[in-house]
Amino acid sequence: MASIRYNPNGQKGRISYNTDIVSGIIALSLQETEGIELVPSKSKGIKVNFEKEGIFADISVIAHYGYSVPELAFAIQQTVKQMVESMTKYRIAKVDVHIQSVVFPEAAPPVPPAAENREQQENK
Predict the structure, then answer these.
(1) Residue 91 domain boundaries
(2) Is the pTM of the predicted complex or chain greater than 0.90?
């Protein structure tokens, strides 16, 4: 569990965020990024470490075919940084993005040659 001292309007107290909350915010930010999906696993493909320098996030995703991998990685980094820093007041030190694989669109099943011949004869 991590904590941050946040003192709006001079109030005393401490706000604490655990790793699951920050991971949830990261997962939410990934839903806004088009062309990816999280690697299906117990940890949802998101690992978060709290250090003195800030939060270190390690994210594993699957890219959809047709999207530029460098552009996807940059978009993920920017979205995660913006959302976590605006929602928690933590500083993001580093976001590592791992593209595990690429998902290709499902091709239509091939039409058997006999069916093609029938269709051509019917259209004549």
Answers:
(1) 2-123
(2) no
